[in-house]
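INFO  loader      accepted 1 record
INFO  loader      residues=132
INFO  predictor   begin
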Amino acid sequence: MSEATPRPAFAPGSHSIAAYGKGVFAFAGMSHEGSILATPKGVQPIDATRIDDLDPAALAPLLAEIAESPGSIEFVIVGTGERLAPMPKASRAALGQAGLRFEAMATGAALRVYNVMQLEGRRVAAALIAVP
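INFO  predictor   done
INFO  writer      dumping tokens
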């Protein structure tokens, strides 16, 4: 797979996150070890083990999705790990330039907020750093 080819989603479509912990997320009847990006188009892995890794390159699939389908996402929830941590400045700038509103919080709180917004039918995405 070339760098220009986007990663396929694990689970196409919008899915709530059923569980998390010990570095794993459960969704759509499956589980994944490591951090994830959940968007209306699907859930996929992201290369980030801590919030500082969540740079514009890690957010590229999200940014590509919003560029491809403007208005498909209006809000991004960012799970920063076990504790709330500030997002990298470059990531905040990239999300803002894409016209996205966003909020960072600890991953547990982030996935709960994402699940509520997703169940309400909101145009929401989540970038979630896995927690031990």
